[in-house]
Amino acid sequence: MTKTSYRQALKDARVELRRLFQEREKLERRIVKTKQSVLALQRMTDETHTGEFLSDIAERRVGLTDAVRSVLMASTRPLAPLDIRNKLEGIGYDIGTSPNVLNSVHTVVRRLRDSGEVKQVGRKADSKWAKEKGYRFTAIGYWWGEYGLPAGWTVYPDKRLQKEWKRKGIVFEDDPKEEDAE
Hints:
By secondary structure, the chain is mainly α. 57% of the residues lie in helices and 10% in strands. The chain has 8 helices and 3 strands, in the order αααααβαββαα. The chain has helices at 3-45, 55-58, 64-74, 81-90, 101-114, 128-133, 159-168, 176-181, and strands at residues 118-124, 137-144, 153-155. The chain is globular and about 65 Å long.
């Protein structure tokens, strides 16, 4: 083989790997959604048999971090911490009676973000009002996965990420006021 054919093989392998990761992400989302559906239906029918795949969740051996991860994996849109808490309650996860549950959810998503497992994302400001006020984003949320981020959302560079990008010479986006002037 020549260097050119090796380069082409490498390029093809990278494309295939990306495609496989996208398929795996879709499959993992479907698995989590189906688990949540089965658990919800079991509660409605008072059926107690959970099966081997659901026993950890049903017996509450899953910690808050894994529960938050599952909610984010199953979501079709980025979620704010309040949305995550509400979804946890909706799937029947026992979040306890602590008055600081939302604080715990914030802590978990921040740790997941810092570890690179989830991304903090923002919905781009597209209304005239938001642009006049100088807002770049109108909503902030968290997204699990590398692919499939809904249209209108982008990775939100928090201050830590902005510093890192600046150090690496990465430009985020132009100031919205400058875009309007063009």
